[in-house]
């Protein structure tokens, strides 16, 4: 960001509850669903800063090309975070546009480190249902640029993996560039594990935020 601060990047629906969270609201980790006996006590990871547009309405009434699912939060203590994606690899600072056939990997909350391949770009607008009970919000939001990913041998992502950074890799599995964020999924009988993953491209997200990716931080 132009202010020189470090922010966390995730989905709007994860940290901003579909644009319903007020600016500077604390973002806690672990999340409420992950708190349990003898677990890590929740702490303030950061503070909600900005959510990109997620306009709901029927196709034709809104400009779905402007819809994406992304938000950022200001990191509370940069000494306590790292740019490492789990223990798998560091965040690449390069970005690339996703294409069919691209080999990809991600590290997520539920399925951890997985490998897969971009199998298609959806030719029609993709509608994703969102529900935020605390704000009585329930709507289908349409997206114009969505890519489908299948995992290698099993699901690429599952519920709870939203916001995972997807990176392209070379033939030896070495990360090359960031290409998108996991934001949804669904059943797919042709996919390993019977589930497909849906991804929004990262380039438009970073351009809208005026942000770049950070690598080499506390690795």
Feature tags:
mainly beta; four-stranded antiparallel β-sheet; 39% strand; Nal1 C-terminal domain-containing protein; Peptidase_S1_PA_chymotrypsin; 219 residues; Peptidase_S1_PA; Nal1_C
List the helices and strands and how they pair.
Layout: E1 7-10, H1 12-15, E2 26-29, E3 43-51, E4 71-75, E5 84-85, E6 89-90, E7 103-108, E8 112-121, E9 126-132, E10 137-143, E11 147-151, E12 165-169, E13 175-187, E14 195-201, H2 203-209
Antiparallel strand pairs: 1-4, 2-3, 3-4, 5-6, 7-8, 7-12, 8-11, 9-10, 11-14, 12-13, 13-14
Structure write-up:
- With 219 residues, the protein is mainly β.
- The protein folds into 2 domains: 7-83, no CATH class; 89-203, Thrombin, subunit H, CATH 2.40.10.10.
- It contains 2 helices and 14 strands, in the order βαβββββββββββββα.
- The strands form 4 sheets. Strands 7-8-11-14-13-12 form a 6-stranded antiparallel β-barrel.
The helix fraction, in percent, is under 10%
CATH class of the largest domain: Mainly Beta
Tertiary shape: globular
Gyration radius, rounded = 17 Å
* Poorly predicted runs: none
The main sheet orders its strands as 7-8-11-14-13-12
* Structural class computed from helices and strand pairing: mainly beta
């Amino acid at each position: 960001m132009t202010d020189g601060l470090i922010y966390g990047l995730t989905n709007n629906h994860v940290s901003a509850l579909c644009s319903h969270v007020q600016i500077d609201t604390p973002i806690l980790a672990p999340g409420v669903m992950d708190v349990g006996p003898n677990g890590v006590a929740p702490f303030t990871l950061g503070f909600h800063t900005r959510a990109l547009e997620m306009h709901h309405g029927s196709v034709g009434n809104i400009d779905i090309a402007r819809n994406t699912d992304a938000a950022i939060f200001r990191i509370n203590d940069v000494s306590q975070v790292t740019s490492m994606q789990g223990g798998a690899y560091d965040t690449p600072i390069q970005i690339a546009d996703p294409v069919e056939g691209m080999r990809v990997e991600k590290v997520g909350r539920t399925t951890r480190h997985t490998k897969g391949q971009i199998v298609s770009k959806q030719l029609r607008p993709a509608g994703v249902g969102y529900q935020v009970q605390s704000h009585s919000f329930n709507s289908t939001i349409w997206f114009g640029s969505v890519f489908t990913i299948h995992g290698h041998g099993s699901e690429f992502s599952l519920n709870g993996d939203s916001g995972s950074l997807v990176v392209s890799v070379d033939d030896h599995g070495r990360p090359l560039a960031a290409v998108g964020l996991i934001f949804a999924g669904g059943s797919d009988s042709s996919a390993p594990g019977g589930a497909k993953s849906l991804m929004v491209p990262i380039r438009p997200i970073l351009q809208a935020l005026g942000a770049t990716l950070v690598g080499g931080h506390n690795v």
